Amino acid sequence: MTKQKQKFYTVWVGRVPGVYHTWEECKEQVFQFEGAVYKSFRTLAEAESAFQKVSEDFIGNEKSSISKDFSQVSNPPEENTICVDGAWNTRTNAMEYQGVMFPQMKRIFHAGPFPTGTNNIAEFLAIVHALTYCKTHPEISIIYSDSNTAITWVKNKKAKTKIAVTNSNTTIISIVKRAEDWLLKNIYTTKINKWETSEWGENPADFGRK
């Protein structure tokens, strides 16, 4: 059996910001903490160095994943657009999502972590959140998501999730219902396009915690 490599976690916003050596320690600082901001790193030195800087330099700014020379791509992504992505932790069931401006790589919104959810729900809510943002920023005409499922849910104005309603996920179910209601009541002209990972590299909004 291959031994899993250790990761180190930088918490910029949490109960006690700092650098932690295990996910369990990190989770105590960020789980169910509204607006928590954190990220994993491969080495302790990287995590400690990141803690001395602002989170925006690392979250939603995966420079290595978008280092492709887009001038060599026949159909590159449009600029002045929003890239969205969601993350779901299979161990804790926690879910979150964010939106990042491309190519500026500036995070414009983040929500979570929520105690329960799914990756598809996170991706769905990220697109809807971006659509509400574009309502007040009409200069942004395109939202990119790498989730075909979430894009379909948004176009159908319905999140076809199979998640069972429990006492622990009433909050996220309520948020999904509000998102569906917004889609039903609002007209938008913003395009929702697929981020072509195979051609363009990792989604700029990726959390980088794989």
Automatic annotation (TrEMBL):
**Where is this protein found?**
Cytoplasm
What's an example Gene Ontology biological process for this entry? DNA replication, removal of RNA primer
EC class: hydrolase
The record's catalysed reaction(s) read:
Endonucleolytic cleavage to 5'-phosphomonoester
Q: Where is the RNase H type-1 domain?
A: 76-210
Stated family:
Belongs to the RNase H family.
UniProt function note? Endonuclease that specifically degrades the RNA of RNA-DNA hybrids.
Which protein are we looking at? Ribonuclease H
Q: Which organism is it from?
A: Pedobacter endophyticus
